[in-house]
Design goal:
single chain, about 100 residues, alpha+beta, 2 domains, 3-stranded antiparallel sheet, elongated
Length: about 100
């Protein structure tokens, strides 16, 4: 009986970064640019490797412990809009 092969590749992380690139065939996105994480280091085959990791999107969590009545709901909505505008302006500055 033939031996079952379980191919795998291991990469020791020497450096890791990310870039924003136009979406390609691996990205299921209509965004103008998408993040790609890049991992650099030696592989288990003895060769140098640069691994591109797609479909990983940044996020953050804002914990709100206040009341959720109508006035505070409006304040939260305005805060969300401000955060979106700040993030959008920051991403435009990086690509200018």
């Amino acid at each position: 009986m033939a031996e079952q092969l379980n191919p795998s590749l291991q990469v020791q992380i020497n450096q890791i970064d990310h870039v924003l690139v136009p979406p390609g065939p691996l990205d299921n996105s209509s965004l103008r640019q998408v993040p790609v994480i890049r991992v650099f280091g030696p592989s288990s085959t003895g060769k140098r490797a640069c691994v591109h990791i797609h479909q990983v999107y940044p996020y953050f969590f804002v914990d709100y412990l206040g009341e959720l009545d109508a006035p505070s709901g409006k304040v939260l909505m305005l805060l969300c809009i401000r955060l979106l505008l700040i993030m959008y302006a920051g991403s435009q500055a990086v690509h200018s």
